[in-house]
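Cont'd.
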Amino acid sequence: MTSEGIGASVRRKEDHRFLTGNGNYLDDINRSSQAYASFVRSPHAHAKINGIDTSGAESMPGVLAVFTGQDLADDGIGPLICGWLIKSKNGDDHKAPAHPALAVDTVRYVGDAVAIVIADTLEQARDGAEQVNVDFQELLAVALPVDAMRDDAPQVHEDAPGNLCYDWEIGEKADTDAAFDAAAHITSMEIVNNRLIPNAVEPRAAIGEYQPGSESFTLYTTSQNPHVTRLVLSAFNQVAPEHKLRVVAPDVGGGFGSKIFIYAEETVCLWASRKVNRPVKWTAARSESFQTDAHGRDHVTKAELALDADGKFTGLRVNTVANMGAYLSTFATCVPTYLYATLLAGQYTTPAIYCDVQAVFTHTTPVDAYRGAGRPEATFVVERLVEQAAKELGTDPAELRRKNMIAADAFPYQTPVIQQYDCGDYPRALDEALNRADYAGFAKRKTDAESRGKKRGIGFSSYIEACGIAPSAAVGALGGGVGLWESGHLRFNPTGSVTIFTGSHSHGQGHETTFAQIVASRLGVPVENIEVVHGDTDKVLFGMGTYGSRSAAVGGSALCKAADKIIEKGRKIAAHILEASEDDIEFADGNFTVAGTDKSMNIGEVAFAAYVPHNYPEDLEPGLNESAFYDPLNFSFPAGTHICEVEIDPNTGSVEIMNYTAVDDFGTVINPMIVEGQVHGGVAQGVGQALLEGCVYDGAGQLVTGSFMDYTMPRADNVPSIDVGMTEVPTPLNPLGVKGCGEAGAIAAPAATINAVVDALWDMGVRSVPMPATASNVWQSIQSAAQAAE
Amino acid sequence: MPVTVSMTVNGKEVSGEVEPRTLLVQFIRENLRLTGTHVGCDTSQCGACVVHINGTSVKSCTTLAVQTEGAEVNTIESLATDGELHPMQEAFRQNHGLQCGFCTPGMVMSAVDLVKENSDPSEQEIREWLEGNICRCTGYHNIVKSIKAGAEAMRG
């Protein structure tokens, strides 16, 4: 490990522009003669559109045009798509009702866009939008899946009877039922995974621009995956042919999944730019983000764990009802199925698992992937059950886990729910966490707290997740409509510097630094001589983008493959110039050397020779420029144990996190500082879900938590300092050995936190606390337990 | 009906025509093309818009441009001098106090004002001071670390 290779905490190259206010975020971009857009949105959760009168708006000062869904349909613009096919138990495809970018005859959630007003200034566009007159006929709405499944529930879509999108299953029902029939002990729970709003601090934005001279389009968009956006907008929405469409995702201020999807706004702005023949710019107001960014989670689950007389898990049976919202967002269908239930084995040897999931439409914002996407939900179910079982059996929760963990020598390990884990050492992470958290000293800390009138609790979360999505063939077999490879292109410049073009996209992850470290370590070029380019479909071949903690594992591996090609070609060039046979050329630390001699060439000299090929192999093309596509062999499986310790004031219910310990196996760690930062951020979001955040709709489908006033974001005084440890078990399945770290914190933290809260209150009779465990909810749980005891 | 407003921004006298309803953050971003100050919300909670007005940190999204008539406004762009980062900026860089960078200008401006008020803030004091700055990426752990280091550097 050098000072800037793999394993070095290199300070980030991208920081300078962010720290000095020179970032290039979407709203910072202004195109010549741009016009501004404001969307007219439904204030009702469910209504028929009897008519839209745009005449008032059209005559407002500065208004260039007002368009509705009919205008899009007249131009043959296709609806927004969902790209993952799920099959129900009876073999039916999932119900995929049409999702027009602008609603045509029915609005189905508060915020559903009905028209776009385009004007010379933003104020004029907003003033114009207020003059659009929509004749809404309000209809009954349903916001909760449990209500949507009732016989008399209002129907969200005619072609989804019973509001059912799909009824899917995985695992072996008969084997699982048999395990339960034979069980010595069964732990049962009802679990709600609360609905969340992603709230990246940068709101979504877009600029659509048409160039009449070349009949081509450019879309600037806050996207985690510009090439996917380009593919979808051309192939499905048919706004422009792919070769005439450039998509640019510049600096993006956080994504967390919410900026993966192809939304109405960028689709309409792009199309509209040709209609008005001016660039069309839109930036979401935060309240718009609340209404229109895809929401996350929102599962209601009944789960049971069967154990034998020795405390070994013999079966897991789970039923989940998942809220899809009013329409299917781009990846919505796979989140509560293949990204969720395939993790239900957790770190354990549970032999029989069965899970079925009913996905339901409601009159709410579409729901899709949000940091963790299915795996926080799975971990919460498994780790709450395990902790509960430990309490019911009077067993230490760490020891119950250890007894059931997959042994370090049992890999590759085939779970009963499709996933085959590659490698890991779960007991080692558990021990390290117990040590760091001073588990042995907990009893004393609990007694001390008691003497101060506080209830102290400790909770575990031994999570595993599947990321680095994923092998294309596997994804395709499971219904995915795309391949999930990644591309990496290394261009040596004649003067020896390197430009990396990656299909990954950094919106906080630091790829401009870590990808440079990968190439520096492989090719011996200093990090300062390496430039990373991402986010522009004109510059980068193709890519699938950044989500699912895939960039290092898949994007980084593509770079390794490209680097291998560079070395192979460099070897030929060096052999020729050094007058040796290729077999005698060794490459190390940036130098090609004739084995056993001191004759060598630096890779920079080789690059120059490749572009000035005066003394050069006859049959070899000039240039030193290689690209590679990498299709992963499997998901990767980061895992570890988090331990949370809380103190609760039983009089107010307020929860304070006293310690938080995270021990994670991410395989090879490229930049420890950056990886720790990912853990911190993920844990903060997980703690946010556990203690603070919750999206609320009322019975009429009104979004009650519609701004930062009502939706509690974690702030600096809500989140603890986090003690982060790492146990590295490199995966044999990719060239770097990396497992991906971006989501682990959000996956592990809710269970650890709630387990700690329940532990603290167990002796007061509390058996569960809903998320978010606000003071009010905690206090209520204490009261309910007290009343039940009477 | 537009009005003319004049003030000093980052040491330079500027003036422009604005509608009375124009927010200071809009004036900074659109009229002055200083896009380092960001808009992250519409209820004055996120802090991405924090600037200094007459030496004190203020949310520019809840200030009208006309309110700063004649005032001294400093934005993130004023911190680095001759290409060299301010000690607080350098502290954020050394301690990985930023990821996506969107909250960062407001966070750094807020931090600089904290240290002006309290030259050696404790972890708790830092966390409480940042109640008006939301970060979604970092979990605040390294922001707190950065501000502690920045405060030390600023103490000289």
